């Protein structure tokens, strides 16, 4: 553990589940926390469309109900990201990752634009399909090692984790929004209302940074 994310300086156990803080995980957690607070406090942008080759421009009007729902989904995405950063349980990590994928779709699903909604639908199908290898990885972890605890995996006292389990975990994370399936999100960014849409990118980046640590355990 010390060679990956640093020596855990705090471990909070909830029965078979646990949360732990290392210099690596606390850094990612604080990043997700700070951006979630910014989402709560900030006012959304008003997207402006400029006519190509001219000076004409229009400002899109955004309904309050729409932005209220997107703010809620952004906060939920931030909370799921924070949970994924500090959890010490493989299953909970996959669960939080799946929640990030769901909330990413929810952030833009309320936008009344055919292009954005079509992109959200396509990405939703990819994210839904990614849950199969994602939770399958947790099942293989449990079946092969007898534990889902990252702390136990890091100690090296359990059987080695099969490569297939790590591969499934990475494939699941990739399907939840990392490259190459990240291209499915491109049209979603046409949705007005930063910083909400930025949460889609930040959460995916944080999940990727955390899964790099997770696959190195065991």
**Class inferred from helices and paired strands:** mainly alpha
Spans with pLDDT under 50 lasting ≥5 residues? Answer: none
Which of globular, elongated, flat, extended, rod-shaped describes the shape?
elongated
Largest sheet: 2 strands, antiparallel
Number of separate domains: 1
Helix content: 55-70%
The total count of strands amounts to: 4
| Strand adjacency order, main sheet | 1-2
C-alpha-based Rg, rounded: 19 Å
H/E element sequence: EEHEEHHHHHH
The number of helical elements comes to 7
Distance between the termini: 10 Å
Give the DSSP E fraction (strand runs of 2 or more residues).
5-15%
Mean model confidence by pLDDT: 81
Could you characterize what this model shows?
The chain has 218 residues and is mostly helical. The protein has one domain (10-215). The protein is built from seven helices and four strands. A two-stranded antiparallel sheet has the order 1-2. Strands 3-4 form a two-stranded antiparallel sheet. Strand 3 (48-50) and strand 4 (57-59) form a beta hairpin. The relative contact order is 0.17. The mean pLDDT is 81.
Fold blueprint:
Elements: E1 10-14, E2 17-21, H1 23-41, E3 48-50, E4 57-59, H2 64-86, H3 90-109, H4 114-145, H5 150-155, H6 163-175, H7 196-215
Antiparallel strand pairs: 1-2, 3-4
Helix pairs in contact: 1-2, 1-7, 2-3, 2-7, 3-4, 3-7, 4-6, 6-7
Keyword list:
mainly alpha; 218 residues; two-stranded antiparallel sheet
Concise summary:
With 218 residues, this protein is mostly helical.
